[in-house]
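Lab notebook, bench 4. The sequencing result for the construct came back, and we need a structural model before the next group meeting so we can plan mutations. Quick request posted to the team channel:

Model the 3D structure of this chain.
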Amino acid sequence: MRWVYLTVIILFVVAIVLFSIQNVQSVTLSFLGFSIRTPLAILTVVVYVLGAITGGSLFAALRKSIRATRTSRPTA
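Done. Here's the predicted structure in token form:
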């Protein structure tokens, strides 16, 4: 099963890299009054990394919560 996960991750990374290489035009990002002009490729990579970090954190928190629930459950 580890190889399936690794293959899926590699496919996503390859897709992101190909998308980034093909989209080099600049875009303007506006958020909360701030504005930045950057190439779409850089923005795509930054969003992907932020998603990976938050997704990993979410899975870690869920795993910890499930593990705590299992250990604190009273036995009948």
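The chain has one domain: 2-72.
Will bring this to the meeting.
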